[in-house]
Amino acid sequence: MDMSSTLDLAVRAIRGADPARFGDPTPCPEFTVAALIDHMASGMRLAENSARRVVVAWDPGSSPVLGGLDEKDWAQACADQADATAAAWADPAAWEGDAHMAETPMPAAVIGSLMTAEFALHAWDLAVATGQRLDVAPDVGRAVLDGVTPVAQMGRDGGWYGPEVPVGDGASDWERALAASGRDPARS
After folding, report:
1. Which residues, in sequence order, are CB contacts of 69 under 8 Å at separation 6+?
2. Residue 150 is inside which H or E element, if any?
3. Would you say 128 and 27 are in contact if contact means Cβ atoms under 8 Å apart?
4. What is the pLDDT of residue 176?
């Protein structure tokens, strides 16, 4: 599984988001649609920097990818950033050793797994907020579950995941990943 699959999900959701809905709320209470797209684009840049072993001071109030662009240009800017991020993580060496997430050192494989999950989860958030359908292949769902499971409790404790949502025994890996991250898979 490579990161490009979840980046593709994110870009499809971003391309499908009508700028007329950029002020709408999302399942992430702290983000409007526009703020979520900006967060996703910024995450893509962070992930690219991590893969390339670029350590940067990160200002969460800045918009390193979308700042200064007209909203009509956001989708293409995100697609371009996603391509750069996917290319950086396509190198097997990107997954080895240690890297930094902004200025925080950690194993590169952990960063890769976290960000792989992050892009898919936020693609779902954006799809739900903008009335889109998000089709997730079983292998992608499994990779996202693998990324969410080890950090789910830490995410709940840190406030970046909500309480786990119960799902039935027949739930897919994707549905289980959504539920573990505090998202209700039945929400549309």
Report:
1. 77
2. none
3. yes
4. 97
What is the mean predicted confidence (pLDDT) over 28-45? 96
Q: 104: part of which helix (H) or strand (E)? A: strand 104-107
Query: How deeply is 146 buried, as exposed, middle or buried, from its count of CB atoms within 10 A (0-12, 13-18, 19+)?
Result: middle
Residue 13 above 70 pLDDT? yes
User: Would you say the C-alpha torsion 46, 50, 52, 53 has a positive or negative sign?
Assistant: positive
- Amino acid in position 120: A
pLDDT of residue 188: 66
pTM over 0.90: yes
Domain 4-58+72-90+101-139 CATH (choose: 1.10.3470, 2.60.40, 1.10.1660, 1.20.120): 1.20.120
d(CA 99, CA 110): 9
CB atoms within 10 A of CB 96: 12
What are the residue ranges spanned by the domains of the chain? 4-58+72-90+101-139
